[in-house]
Amino acid sequence: MSEPPSEYHVSTAAKPHFNRAHALHLLRQMLRIRSFEERCAELYTEEKIRGFLHLYSGEEAIAVGVMQALKPEDAVVATYREHGHALARGIAMDTLMAEMYGKREGVSRGRGGSMHVFDAERRFYGGNAIVGGGMPLAVGLALADKMQGHARVTACFFGEGAAAEGAFHESLNLAELWQLPVLFVCENNLYAMGTALARSESETDISRKAACYRIPAMALDGMDVIAIEAAAHAAVAEIRAGGGPRFLECRSYRFRAHSMFDAQLYRDKAEVEAWKKKCPLLRFRHWLEEAGILSMDETGRIEAEIDAELDAAIAFAEAGTWEPVADLARDVYTEDR
Amino acid sequence: MSTETIRTTYREAVRAAICDALDRDRRVFLMGEDVGRYGGCYAVSKGLYDQYGPERIRDTPLSECGFTGAGIGAAMGGMRPIVEIMTVNFSLLALDQIVNNAATIRHMSGGQFHVPLVIRMASGAGKQLAAQHSHSLEGWYGHVPGIKVIAPATLEDARGMLWSALEDPDPVILFEHVMLYNREGELTADAGPVPITGAAVRRAGTDLSLITYGGCLFKTLDAAEELAADGIAAEVIDLRCLRPLDDATVMASVRKSHRAVIIDEGWCTGSLAGEVSARIMEQAFWELDAPVGRVCSAEVPIPYPKHLEDEALPQVRDIVAAARAALGR
Lengths: 337, 329
Known about the structure:
The complex is a heterodimer. Chain A is α/β, with parallel strands linked by helices.
């Protein structure tokens, strides 16, 4: 019997076609997410956004990199830290912002808020606020695709904290056992809320856990958008070819608190600052500038465009309407529509 | 409609319903622990693995959370899964998926997604399976908006409610009481779908209303028979749809009889019986000539020895006694 592969290598053939336009696209997508998140933090202090707000700053390369490998017919299952995935998947910033506000014009009709972004048109299945809770759903979506003969992939994002949940293990086992087209993407930001990985897991190498289920798995630099995109392309190609699930562990860091209520007593400021030096945006931008692909002026122009997009999104959300209370029970069941 | 009948059991009626669904709709498949090669813990799916193959009669690992969640995902992905959970006790391992996902996704997504899933599970006591295999948690599930809960007790309902549940665009939890599987009776040969809305009057009467569901139905009918021997005409209502509850049928009966006793194998505290009682109080208080009575399980984990298990569960004598108390006779 052969040993399960503990990692697989990105073949050069699977590397994304890299040109200037695509590089600028990646940078723009990451900048859009960062700007959106930073503005959300401000809006939270202004009490425009309430409830729990979990920001993705620092982890942008993962969502942006992985989404490049997906087609419109593929599915995405994400976590409660999913603004980045939503934007990278193509959900408009204005409907996303309206969802933050809880307005009827929001992408989930304002029902879900920050943690529950859904979009049927883009096959975006949440926005799941139970750690690991989206993973069995992803398995089921992939099972449906396989049974119906669709050559579609379901990308399932989750944090390293999910590895402590039974749902993680049950899902990985089912996906491999049934050879389902799931791309598991672990966003390892080292802390499950305030609990450091080493304080909660006996095996801190998450990719090894996937390998235990015989799922080809690799760990990669979660701050490197190009590496993530290349790995995602390779993995998705293999999944689409009928190779069963793949697992990417993206080692990253969240720059902001777990949520807006978190005083971050569990980690040193120096650690945060050290990670900020590895910022996926700065790193990619510097690389592009050094390579002569991008000028400082162009960066400024992109940032100005994103600011304008954000201003418009906030105006859209501000102008949005509240769902009438008479509609409170709408969509509990289908016949209530 | 044919009047030709066949002799069958509840188990066979459920199996026929599953076969019917598999034949009618390519999207339907059955998934659960030992549903395939083993033939089902209660032998409901015996033979189906050979008939329909491993894709559609899908054995799962012991991963209730995983495969129930996968059923939710598959339902959202265009399939019509029937997830079988061996017993309601094991469904507690899948409760997160049922309550946090299946029940919420339609509302939480602003109506964009729905979960056309049926989860079947065995429930109830009576087989000396002790405290971890004998629960009646229908009331717990009935507490949750976003799911529908049904409990077919008769052969007709066992044969007919599954298809209606599969046609429903929302998640439906279907309870099969373990003591019903071996019940035999006559079923019309062409028995078809039964709606999953509304209670059924199983015996007409004017003196009091006995309101029940699932495994307690036949005990209640036996009690009604006993009462009839004393000249008491009890009406027996089989709720069968536990969420949403059919208030109209219950209130119509209470307005006629002015007395009600609810028989529920769940524990009394926080029970479905409590919910029905409250609704009677809210909607038909001035019709009542006596307090609403309840016959529920004793507030203990169900014990193994037969005499203690019997003592813990609603029995015919308890129902008769509660009925007499309501009548002051």
